[in-house]
Amino acid sequence: MIQRIASPRRIASPRLGCDLPDGVLAVRAAEGDEDSFAVLVQRHSRSLLALAHGMLGNPQDAEEAVQDAFVSAWRRLPEYRHSAEFSTWMYRITINRCLTMRRRRRLPPLPLDTVAEPATGDARSQPARSAEQDATTEALSRALAELDAGQRICWILRELQGLPYNEIAHVTRTSEQTVRGRLFRARRSLQEAMGPWR
Questions:
Q1: What is the Cα–Cα distance from 111 to 49, expressed in whole angstroms?
Q2: ∠70-74-78 over CA atoms, to 5°?
Q3: Alpha helices, H only, 21-160
Q4: Which value, to the nearest 10 degrees, does the dihedral of the CA atoms of residues 190, 132, 109, 157 take?
Q5: Residue 84 in 3-state DSSP?
Q6: Interval 38-72: pLDDT, tens
Q7: DSSP 149-192
Q8: What confidence tens digit (pLDDT) does each residue in 139-184 have?
Q9: pTM (2 decimals)?
Q10: Measured distance CA(125)–CA(189) in Å, rounded
Q11: How many whole angstroms separate alpha carbon 165 and alpha carbon 180?
């Protein structure tokens, strides 16, 4: 995904395993160790891509946003203070990048097909069920698009990414009470919008 992050000096370090905690890897990366940063990229790319895809609606924009977020993180590693988890810091950078892309491109809401449906046999053998699932997904996408950005971000982080309230508060730079309020309003709006599909 990331062709070339920057051109820091490569530090001769012992072969890194995936068993090192993010904090240690971030310290090494801040000192210029590309291998440590590569482990962080590999470790967090999938969840950040899912987040960006949920916010932007298509894989190409999501990949661009995550790549830009990692480039920004590489450059800003000396600013990372370890007061939050590295993943929380990356969520914040990625969300900011996605919001910037949406503003610049005025991206319309696109279908929400980032949430994988559980496999229940061959969809071609059940055309009515497949059509109903497509219509439900489209309705959910429209309902999410009508939420304000704060509610949508909190909902994606909680329901799609599974983040706890305190991490969502840290990512969004709000209080847990604000996060809970936004989630309450988002869930109520989505429940009303999806009423006919139950």
A1: 16
A2: 140
A3: 22-30, 34-56, 59-76, 86-105, 127-146, 149-155
A4: 50
A5: coil
A6: 999 999 999 999 888 888 878 899 999 999 999 99
A7: HHHHHHHIIIIIT---HHHHHHHHTS-HHHHHHHHHHHHHHHHH
A8: 777 777 788 888 888 988 888 888 899 989 988 889 999 999 999 9
A9: 0.67
A10: 34
A11: 7
